[in-house]
Amino acid sequence: MPGLKRKDILGLRDMTTDEIDLILNTAETLKDIATRSIKKVPTLRGKAYCTLFYENSTRTAKSFELAGKYLGADVINVSASSSSVKKGETLLDTARNLEAMGLDALVMRHPAGGAPHMLARHLSCSVINAGDGMHEHPTQGLLDMLTIRQQKGSLKGLKVAIVGDIMHSRVARSNIYGLTKYGAEVWLAGPATLLPTGFEEFGVKVTTRVEEALEGADVVNVLRLQLERMEKSLFPTVAEYHKFWGVTPARLKLAKANALLMHPGPMNRGVEISSHIADGNQSVILEQVTNGVAVRMAILYLLMGGGEAA
Amino acid sequence: MTILIRNGRLIDPANHIDQLADIFIKNGRIAAIGEGLKDNGVDKVINARGKVVAPGFIDIHVHLRVPGQEYKEDIRTGTAAAVRGGFVGIVCMPNTNPVIDNVPLVSYVVNLAREQGLCKVWPTGAITKGSKGEQLAEIGDMKEAGIVAITDDGRPVTSSETMRQAMIYAKQFDLMVMDHAEEKAISAGGAMHYGKVSSMLGIKGIPSTSEEVQVARDVLLSLETGAHVHIQHISSRQSVALVRWGKQMGARVTCEATPHHFTLTDQIVADLNYSTDTKMNPPVREEADRLAIIAGIADGTIDIIATDHAPHHIDEKAVEYQDAAFGITGLETSVGLTVTKLVKPGIISLAQMVTMMSTRPAELVGLKAPALVEGAEADITIIDVDKSWTVKAEEMASKSLNSPFIGWELTGAPHATIVGGKLRMLEQQVIGE
Prior knowledge:
By secondary structure, chain A is of the alpha/beta class. Helices cover 39% and strands 15% of the residues of chain A. Chain A has twelve helices and nine strands. Chain A has helices at residues 17-35, 59-70, 84-87, 91-100, 115-122, 138-152, 170-181, 210-214, 238-245, 249-252, 275-278, 285-304; strands at 48-53, 74-79, 105-110, 126-132, 159-163, 185-189, 205-207, 219-222, 260-262. Chain A has a five-stranded parallel beta sheet. Chain A has a four-stranded parallel beta sheet with strand order 2-1-3-4, with helices on both faces. Chain B is an alpha/beta fold. In chain B, the strands form four sheets. In chain B, strands 1, 2, 3, 4, 5, 16, 17, 18 and 19 form a nine-stranded mixed beta sheet that branches. Chain A binds chain B through residues 13, 84-85, 90-92, 110, 112-115, 117-118, 121, 132-136, 167, 170, 173, 196-199, 201-202, and chain B through 194-205, 273-274, 315, 318-323.
């Protein structure tokens, strides 16, 4: 098996299917570790990394932390004020200082698109993007793809509907870049004010009618609606949003009977997704979380550990 | 000091000149033009064989950062960058700290430039006090102190009524109103052009409409008031169309294009992987916009080329893209980009280039245009139109290095700059006292 010949994981847009396959296959192999009674292997003993989060996170931060711990690495966690300027230290200085402590990898979430790309240029340790602004969230994209692959066998030809605030969503972008590489038919649906301009040119279908996206879908991925978007006049009320774009039991029936229902979390129950289906038998939302640990173990292993020897 | 420019091709369309000749300069003026002039006792002979000798180039959109931001640029480094780029004179913007909105500040810049400048410097004054968009600045007073136009560049006047009154007021003093056309309510928070590339990169976009609504407003106000409004750094195809329409309607509207807007598109942000040297305001937009700007340059809708030279310290650029300062340097790459992107492909002639970089810019701000005639002040730019060269950071004279063109191969380089009879640059080497 070839190793991962890159220093950083910044996004799925510039990754090849060979690289993605390697990560997903490695994740399948490592997934068992997280479900054993003794959840520790020495694979990454002696390796150190840091999670640096400039935005709040439960799932991604904790999942990255546990992933490394299961593999025996040392991890430190830094959660910083969202503005490095406020702290008086630049992002670059913060990262360089952390690297100087001997890190092998830096996992960062940051509100500015492109922030991890800047660090990757300046640091010699690996930089792993745990979400950069509205740009990418590659490990979420990978765990979504792993979840779909496990359930459906292959990604090719699947109709995947991504519903909600596409414009501000890094989850949507990583899913789009990843899924289209494998020949999935990706549909984006949401209010016109929350749809990004120009995405049709990347080979996806865009609609303001959620029913059109859900019709015959194999996968329905519902995005979190950030309620502060209301203040910017992007949609009027939660009630109106739910009426036109909420994924309800009735709308989910438009999808195939065995369609998967996904959500990256945290959910606004009753807004973008109805509780009945979020907790229903089509939901793979918690499976996504479990796979998240596996994908992050794979990435930490491939970047810091014996990627070549895998 | 006496200078003899030998065997150059003199191009000065305003004076119907396109001929091979020598120019003899004495006491700061063009003393003689002719063939085979004697070089006995001449202090400096410049061999201009194969080169273009033009009336001196003027850039009417430069951020000198004086007063208050001398860590980005100062009079000496800014004018050094200018003469290295082939400019004999520059018009500097008032969005300094404090804003140039009164006579003492105008005089400060004028006097400092006289003492330290390597080229001519003409300041502009703010339209409103502190560029806050509320009360008019002392426009008449500032004109007497030396300003050549008014502008709230960078902090454009939001209120249409304030802009309207400013135009009416400026007109009586025969001052042009330069506008950085931007509706901040539309552009707020954006860091690059709003389009498929900003969608792809997840960067908040600046829609073209943020410029266009203000261009439309300015054109209509100019039609009503008869004032001369000048649209700075035009960036979108609809803005070009609006200016074209305004001119057809008889509005006194002019506009400028920057080399980066006729050279780059928003794709550069992706290609340079979020390099903040691609961040400027207005942003470079789409290929259709770039082509419309080129068409506007070719048909005369766009009057002049100006750089919006905007130096920034590395600390203001080595940060997250959305937090980085807007602006790139331009003085030292303007001639090269203009020759490479406009003259060599045949979009404009050398004569049109001279008009757009010397004669027209001077006329717009009410200055006597440099001319290649006997008796005229010796403000001369010599261009090596065929020279291939690489833009190198270590060779730049500006204090700042925020240019996306570093590393580019260009054709056409400024060869010499003569300011008021003094040789200020030869073969891209700046010459001080």
